[in-house]
Amino acid sequence: MFTGIVEELGEVTAVENLGDSSRFRLRGAVVTQGAKHGDSIAVNGVCLTVVEHEDDWFTADVMAETLERSSLGALGVGSRVNLERPMAVGERLGGHIVQGHVDGTGQVIERKPSENWEIVKISLPADLTRYVVEKGSITVDGISLTVVDAGSDHFTVSLIPTTLDLTTLGRKQPGDPVNLEVDVIAKYVERLLGSQGAAGTRGAGQ
Prior knowledge:
Shape: globular
Number of helices: 3
Number of strands: 12
Order of helices and strands: EEEEEHEEEEEEHEH
Strand order of the largest sheet: 1-2-5-4-3-6
Distance between the termini: 42 Å
Helix content: 10-25%
Structural class: alpha+beta
């Protein structure tokens, strides 16, 4: 489990095509501290498994489905990425509960700079709209953010200077893809309410 608080801005240094998957080599001096084979690291919000690692880099295999369903397929050598290690038990939950399981991708639509922050508008797939609410949480490229405005096919977030400086969202331009993970609590609530409704219907018919 992650929190959506990016630890460092890493970089893709190599991409090896393995046929039905790709192996990424990524530079990240912070997230490789104490890393072991099999550990998890979130890369732009996607939970990946460490294969090899050295002092400031690690490799991870990305399956074809992940490449197709996330924005990782658009990465190349030199791409910057948000990196985060899993939350340790007993630590503060600085963002919100993030699984590292991308629900879909959106695109940056526009950016509106202000004196001390920036409003970014991002497209939202139709099947995710019901999970996104004003002042709710959403993960964008692994960053825990608060929704400012939730539309039928988009949402906006307000980015402070720290987020702009230390994450990929400071560099994303209109048309660039981003990974989206909605609040898992909303999905559980939907499933539970749906189950209760179905149970109630069956009961009435007996």
